[in-house]
Amino acid sequence: MYKVRPLQDKVVIKSLPTCMYKTKPFFNEDNLNFGSNLVEPLANLSLVELEELSKQQGKQLRRLERLLTKSNEFCEDLRLDNLVIHTSQNSQHKLEEAYKKQEALFQKIENLTQKVNKVVQEMNLNSVTESLANVNLRQNETRKQRQRYNVDLSLFKEIKRANIKVLTDRNVEDLVFYVNPNNIPLDLLNFFDVLSQETKSFIKFYVHSSISSDIQQNYELENKLLSIGELFEGLSLSVNDSRVSYDFGFTFIWRKMESNEQELKFSNGTIVSGEAKIAQSINELLPQQISEVRLKQNKASSPLIKILKTL
């Protein structure tokens, strides 16, 4: 090594080392029972590095001790020792005890059911419970009798959907639409119909809890919403591949709305109202926008829109 002038005058360095010494490693085979494959790398470390390694090792050990303590506490709280299958001679005795506990639990449930029925009778709630039972019964019978909507695929044989991701420079764009179930958004569904021919897109439908009671009492509305979802599933326009392989994801949520105007919520939280503004906002995400002329032509000739109008 060479003695040179300091780069900064403010820092005064009186002398620089002219040679270096090799010392014994802090960890060796005497104080740590390591194999040769671990001792040799440690011998090349400095004291500072070895000290830092020792600190990290201590942290990991303390962390493992904490995890072990918490796991033991968790097992004690859940009394998991009662769930262990013993292989000793008294295993039959343990099994009989488990059966007794199960019977006691069933008895508690039966007693609770009797108490609830007694409270219902005292509060004159029999009519309410009977009506709810009848609603559930009618709903189950309707679903059993209802046939799944079958799509005539021959009407769509000339329509080619995009099956390869086009916008490779971005992730899937999730678009959430809030719509009134009594007003089917034909313009938005028509836009999706055209968009699915240009970009790889999927569509999903969900029912919000705000209209769940209305659907239970209106079987025609329930049948219509179910048929719409089954129509798009039959055309393989739902999620069939990994989400990352799509360009756009349309999620329609049927919910109670103050007005008939649809709302679009982007992934960043931005909300747009009205079908015209929504279509314009989606168009801005495309490298080549979909013209109004094409949308009108598709709405007039698309078999998908014709089927939706009949539902």
UniProtKB/TrEMBL annotation:
Query: What Pfam families does this protein map onto?
Result: Thioredoxin_16
- Work out whether the entry's keyword set contains Membrane: no
Span of domain AIMP2 thioredoxin-like: 171-268
Superkingdom of this entry's organism? Eukaryota
Annotated localization: Cytoplasm
Q: Which residues form a coiled coil?
A: 47-122
In the record, biological process GO terms are: translation
**Keyword annotations of the record:** Coiled coil, Cytoplasm, Protein biosynthesis
Query: Does Transport show up as a keyword for this record?
Result: no
A GO cellular component annotation in the UniProt record: aminoacyl-tRNA synthetase multienzyme complex
The record's PANTHER family line, in alphabetical order, gives: AMINOACYL TRNA SYNTHASE COMPLEX-INTERACTING MULTIFUNCTIONAL PROTEIN, AMINOACYL TRNA SYNTHASE COMPLEX-INTERACTING MULTIFUNCTIONAL PROTEIN 2
Query: By what name is this protein known?
Result: AIMP2 thioredoxin-like domain-containing protein
Organism encoding this protein: Brachionus calyciflorus
